[in-house]
Design brief:
Layout lengths: L12 H20 L10 H8 L3 H7 L3 H4 L5 H4 L3 H6 L15 H11 L11 H4 L4 H4 L14 H7 L3 H6 L15 H4 L11 H10 L16 H4 L21 H6 L39
Helix pairs in contact: 2-3
The structure holds heme C (10 copies).
């Protein structure tokens, strides 16, 4: 493609405008078609830029964006007009730290409307992260796209959460059994708005036996789902419970309507689940003892 090693010093602005027009059309129709590529559109643009950026242009041929013919150089690097005129001048969007997150996100979201509809409203968008915080567009292997996967992309910032995955009782994330993105959508990672749905159905994908349906449900699960009692990142307590003493957990909701003879029970010596064995629900007992 870029066999021509001589820099093309000047591109007429008429041609450039035509080119940008084409790019916008392509981008627009991609967005409308749910980001599905139609046909390769990159060649011209890659040649123009590749005249000077030969290595980048060559490597670009191995990235997902070129393989599906979705994006030309200028569909991401806005403001190329002045850059081309001056043979490498300023003004082009280069996705540097100094460029605003809003400007960077806007470019990517032109096409990625479907998969990232919630990004800007989610905690990452609000905290001014941008797509290139996690994605290296010019990386050659497709899955470098997410800077190697759904855990590494997260732990630089969420060290505290990652640390919990080395506590005694935990999901085996560090051993690769699951990843942060098994449970979180990186583009809308907050779970707090979707209590029942996320916290329960998500867990039940793997822990099917905890879902019932039960004739007698434990009312607690309806409050906040599984995380009412478990911390899925890990805890020092057995079964990933959020408190060291099971009785303390139960007492946090059950203080009054306990049978009189329960009054001798206390959080040090009593394991409530030695009798109430079916804490997640039962078909036989409305007090979950079998
Ligand atoms: C899908 C969007 C996208 C497309 C298409 C794209 N780039 Fe980039 N480019 C970026 C981003 C984002 C960066 C910032 C570095 C990074 O995150 O990978 C960048 C960085 C660069 C840089 C500066 C850093 C470096 O690696 O030297 C150059 C030069 C560049 N791109 C040229 C090009 C050329 C030439 C093309 C077409 C062959 C192109 N880009 C296509 C998004 C894109
Ligand atoms: C005539 C040669 C030439 C052409 C054609 C050219 N560039 Fe450049 N480009 C340069 C030079 C030289 C630099 C380094 C400028 C600098 O560091 O200030 C550069 C830098 C860049 C950068 C990094 C800017 C930064 O702030 O670090 C990007 C991104 C870029 N070019 C993209 C493109 C794209 C996209 C095209 C095609 C639309 C293109 N270039 C066409 C010569 C060119
Ligand atoms: C002109 C439209 C367009 C623009 C602009 C664009 N993309 Fe894409 N991108 C696509 C299409 C189309 C695909 C392939 C989608 C698919 O297969 O579902 C894709 C694929 C991807 C993928 C998945 C790669 C893989 O491993 O499968 C990532 C990540 C991505 N883009 C990030 C970005 C980022 C970050 C930006 C902004 C710097 C950006 N894109 C800008 C159209 C675009
Ligand atoms: C916090 C890090 C992070 C940010 C910020 C981020 N992504 Fe992603 N993205 C990921 C990870 C991790 C994956 C892989 C998800 C998986 O494996 O389930 C991914 C996957 C993708 C994919 C391919 C799968 C899909 O969902 O279609 C595309 C396209 C994509 N991201 C685009 C974007 C765009 C556009 C932005 C900015 C609006 C963005 N991402 C912001 C981490 C991020
Ligand atoms: C560049 C730093 C950075 C990266 C990388 C990052 N995050 Fe975040 N994350 C933040 C910031 C900042 C917030 C908003 C402030 C907060 O709640 O801590 C946030 C918020 C969150 C929240 C919501 C917290 C709440 O209370 O609502 C979750 C969940 C989350 N991130 C998960 C992830 C996952 C999963 C990944 C990897 C795909 C990831 N983050 C990558 C910085 C980052
Ligand atoms: C087994 C599923 C699961 C995995 C794996 C998981 N999370 Fe979570 N995460 C959750 C649930 C459920 C919540 C909501 C907890 C709540 O509301 O109390 C949550 C909450 C969060 C929060 C906000 C509250 C807090 O505890 O700070 C952040 C940030 C977060 N997760 C980041 C991550 C990161 C980073 C990883 C990977 C290292 C990860 N999560 C792995 C299920 C998971
Ligand atoms: C009312 C608190 C509570 C709620 C809500 C809860 N659990 Fe539990 N869970 C427990 C207790 C207590 C134990 C320990 C039982 C014992 O001591 O034998 C446990 C044990 C477990 C175990 C390990 C032992 C076993 O039986 O396999 C898994 C897995 C588990 N819970 C998953 C879940 C899931 C998934 C949800 C949501 C559907 C959930 N839990 C909701 C209290 C709760
Ligand atoms: C992708 C499958 C998967 C998902 C999703 C998942 N888990 Fe797990 N869970 C496991 C596996 C596998 C184990 C056994 C430990 C390991 O290998 O990581 C486990 C262990 C547990 C245990 C400890 C069991 C014991 O015997 O002590 C609890 C409690 C638990 N999970 C709760 C949850 C909760 C709550 C959620 C939802 C936020 C959840 N899990 C989501 C696969 C999953
Ligand atoms: C988050 C609050 C919460 C926690 C923690 C909790 N429960 Fe419950 N539990 C409830 C609710 C709500 C009901 C339904 C009460 C109703 O319908 O009046 C219930 C019902 C019960 C019942 C059935 C009898 C009744 O009053 O309806 C038993 C037995 C019970 N819980 C035992 C336990 C034990 C043992 C633990 C500790 C392992 C525990 N609960 C932890 C909220 C909780
Ligand atoms: C030795 C077995 C045993 C232990 C240990 C035990 N329970 Fe019970 N619990 C029962 C039985 C049996 C009932 C049925 C009521 C009755 O027979 O008086 C019951 C009833 C209950 C009820 C339902 C009250 C009602 O009728 O609404 C709750 C709530 C309860 N227990 C909570 C707890 C908590 C919390 C603990 C731990 C501090 C605990 N139990 C420890 C056997 C036990």
């Amino acid at each position: 493609m870029s066999a021509n090693k001589q820099p093309k010093p000047f591109v007429s602005s008429v041609r450039l405008l035509a080119l940008l027009g084409l790019v916008l059309c392509v981008a627009g129709s991609l967005a409308a078609a749910g980001s599905r590529p139609q046909a390769p559109q990159t060649a011209k643009d890659v040649d123009t830029c590749g005249a000077c950026h030969e290595d980048v242009a060559k490597a670009f041929g191995r990235t997902p964006h070129s393989a599906i013919g979705a994006a030309s150089c200028t569909s991401c690097h806005a403001g190329s007009e002045a850059h081309l005129k001056d043979g490498g001048g300023a003004g082009i969007l280069a996705f540097k730290a100094a460029d605003s997150a809003a400007r960077k996100n806007k470019v990517c979201l032109t096409c990625h409307t479907a998969s990232n509809a919630q990004f800007l409203a989610g905690p990452h968008g609000k905290a001014s992260l941008d797509c290139t915080t996690c994605h290296s567009v010019h990386a050659s292997k497709p899955h470098d796209g997410a800077k190697s996967g759904g855990t590494k992309a997260c732990i630089t910032c969420h060290q505290d959460v990652y640390a919990k995955f080395s506590l005694n009782e935990r999901h085996h994330l560090q051993e690769g059994v699951l990843e942060c993105t098994t449970c979180h959508n990186p583009h809308e990672p907050s779970t707090l708005g979707r209590l029942g749905g996320f916290k329960q159905e998500l867990c039940l994908k793997c822990h099917t036996d905890k879902g019932g349906p039960f004739l007698f449900e434990h009312g607690s699960s309806r409050v906040e789902g599984c995380v009412t009692c478990h911390d899925p990142h890990g805890t020092p307590n057995r079964h990933m419970l959020s408190t060291p003493s099971v009785a303390d957990l139960c007492f946090s909701c059950h203080t009054i309507q306990l049978p009189q003879w329960h009054s001798s029970f206390n959080s040090q010596t009593t394991n409530c689940t030695s009798c109430h064995t079916k804490m997640h629900g039962s078909n036989l007992s409305n007090i979950f003892i079998r």
